[in-house]
Amino acid sequence: MRDDPSQEPQPHPPAASTPNAAPIIRVPVFVLMALGGVLYDLLFGRATLLTLGDGIPQESRAMWLRWSTLGFNLATIAGAIALFVMVARIARRSDAVPIVARLALAIFTGVFIATLTVALTEPPSSELQPKLMLGRSGGYMLMSLLAVVGLRARQRGMQLGLSLWAAMVFSSLVVLVLEVGQVPRLTASVKTFNEGAWLLIPMAFAPAFGAFDARGRVRTLVFAVVITVTLLTWQWVLDEDYAAVFYGVFQLDALKGSTIVLYAPILGMVLGASLSAATGPSASQRMGGVALLLALCAGHLPRSVGMMVVQALALALLVWYALGRQAFGMPVRGGESSLPA
Known about the structure:
Blueprint: H1 29-52, H2 58-91, H3 99-121, H4 128-151, H5 156-181, H6 184-205, H7 214-238, H8 242-250, H9 263-278, H10 283-298, H11 305-325, E1 326-327, E2 330-331
Antiparallel strand pairs: 1-2
């Protein structure tokens, strides 16, 4: 007698995919290490040290400086590893990156990483400066290519941010040339433009990462108020020394004198939106927020090749996100995740 079909084991239906429930661990560990290192350098190596100033004894200051370099070195090494991996993954996207762009990405990444290795291993000297200049130029060209690749994805929500990033990279390269030519007035004007683009970039990207949706607006507002109050309190405590300390930390000087107080609400909103994205409910939102925080911590004019690595890594993460959604106006082929594994 034929067995009853109802008694046969039935195949289990495939589990529904839940990408929004992916944990933040899917974001590369080296990216989180780079963020931790750059935050350590910003808060401990710059903000605290400059705020205390002469209140730190000379011997303690030397030890403080040695310890503060730990964050910088961690951000540089972890950032370089993550950047290399991310650029390699972007270059493998044959559906989104033409062969010429892949070749150029490989060349400029090689120049950039090679210069970084030299900067980390050779002692400072006059002979090292031309090599670092070449490396910084390679880094700017690498970021220009990454921004162009991201723009080809034709995502309206991110095109503005990538366009601003490309403009900031170009103006940074102009500043590099003008500083060599010693043109102070024109250099100051280009730096002001560069600063404005840097402040607008997180605001352009933030809506794509949920910073201004129903719940995101609340998180953004809370973070913005806390950061604004903190900066205003910092200014009140330091009084006349605030301008010099503020520039040492953020390298922002477009607003001077009494108008410097306006930086508090501006940075409050910019950092608030980035932190809101970094604490969002989905892993893709958190990845975007981490990228924005990396970009803000690196500054609009990176102080070194190491900080340029962090800036390039932030851009690579954002470009990967853009290509994970659309390429050339069409859905991306293949099963690539929008998050780097």
